[in-house]
Structure formats: structure tokens, C-alpha cells
Backbone:
């Protein structure tokens, strides 16, 4: 479990094929990875991975073909930067929202607009079929960053929503380097996920009465 508050960025220094999957080597000395335990969970651009081969410079992580297909990690290159967050510990403050690290799909950057005082507006096209989980003033996770939805537009079975990015988040995460048309890992709010499941189950139960 994570919060969506990014602790730092890491750089991919190697990508090795592993059968149908891959192993990434990620350099992040500023996060003191040598203090982590082998097998610790780390959110890499919002995708929960297991830290292996840990040393003072960074760590490695294995990705299955499923992870490569369903997240932006399938398009990663050596030299790319990724947002990093270690798992939430009991008693840690929850400053963002509960994030599982289970990516639901890839959203597309539909627009980037500079605003006053160094703020930026991002227009995001939600993955097909997931727009119903996005609500004004609700939470979403983009590349591991916990963000608040300002408003949404539903048109022709597509949902576009927009968010404001403050200068600090723009500067210390990979969001500041995004381009229009680029994909980002998208995770819906955990509460929305379970409410949807409960409502669907409730409808099925009512039909069986």
C-alpha cells in the first residue's frame, strides 16, 4: 500500500530480457536504498514492484509480460526517469490517498496548459471503460502521483478530466517532463473500485430475487 506522495525519482540504467518479462535496474542513491530490505515493495511510476539486488546506488525489479503490456513500462528505455515511493508503514502519515500500485490502465495526456504562478493544467483522457471511476474532487493516481480531479467531460463514450499541478509537484516528479500524447499509468481510487464491485453484485442479487 502507498500514498501517492513521491519520495524521489530514479533513473533506469539497464533493461534485461527475462523470458517473456524484463528486469529493470533503477538508480536512486538519494533514497538510501541500502536501508531497504530485500523483497520490499516499491511503487515505480505507480506500479508496485519488488526490490531485488539492493545496494547503495539502487535496486533491480522484475516485470512480468502482463506488467509490460498493461503499463507504460513496456515502452521504457535506458535513461528514462521514474517516480518512486516505498510502501506505507504502520503509523506513517497518510498525506495523499490509499494507492495499491495496481495499475488499471494507461491514460493519455490530452493537453498541457501553463497557468499563473508556475502551476500547470493537465487534461487527461481516461482509459476506455474507466471513466465512470473518475469524479470531480475525487482522487486518481498518475504515474504514482496522488492527484485531485478538478472536473470531467464525458463525450462519445470517452472521459477527459483535468487536474492542476502545483510547481513543487511539477518540479520533483516526472509529470513536469510529460508531452501531449504521452501515456501515464492510471490507477482509480480504491474506494471507487470497491463501490463499483458492490453495486454490480447488488444488481445481480436483486435480479435473482
Residues:
Amino acid at each position: 500500500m502507498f500514498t501517492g506522495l513521491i519520495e524521489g525519482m530514479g533513473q533506469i540504467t539497464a533493461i534485461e530480457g527475462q523470458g517473456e518479462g524484463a528486469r529493470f535496474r533503477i538508480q536512486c542513491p538519494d533514497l538510501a536504498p541500502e536501508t531497504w530490505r530485500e523483497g520490499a515493495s516499491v511503487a515505480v511510476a505507480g506500479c508496485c514492484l519488488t526490490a531485488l539486488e539492493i545496494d547503495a546506488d539502487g535496486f533491480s525489479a522484475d516485470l512480468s509480460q502482463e506488467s509490460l503490456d498493461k503499463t507504460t513500462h513496456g515502452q521504457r528505455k535506458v535513461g528514462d526517469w521514474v517516480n518512486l515511493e516505498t510502501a506505507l508503514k504502520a503509523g506513517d502519515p497518510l498525506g495523499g490517498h490509499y494507492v495499491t500500485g495496481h495499475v488499471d490502465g494507461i491514460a493519455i495526456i490530452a493537453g498541457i496548459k501553463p497557468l499563473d504562478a508556475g502551476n500547470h493544467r493537465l487534461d487527461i483522457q481516461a482509459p476506455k471503460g474507466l471513466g465512470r471511476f473518475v469524479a470531480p474532487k475525487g482522487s486518481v493516481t498518475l504515474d504514482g502521483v496522488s492527484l485531485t480531479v478538478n472536473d470531467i467531460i464525458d463525450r462519445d463514450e470517452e472521459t477527459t478530466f483535468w487536474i492542476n499541478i502545483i510547481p513543487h509537484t511539477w518540479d520533483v516528479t516526472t509529470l513536469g517532463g510529460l508531452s501531449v500524447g504521452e501515456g501515464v499509468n492510471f490507477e482509480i481510487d480504491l474506494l471507487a473500485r470497491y463501490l463499483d464491485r458492490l453495486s454490480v453484485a447488488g444488481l445481480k442479487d436483486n435480479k435473482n430475487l
Notes: The first helix runs from residue 65 to 70.
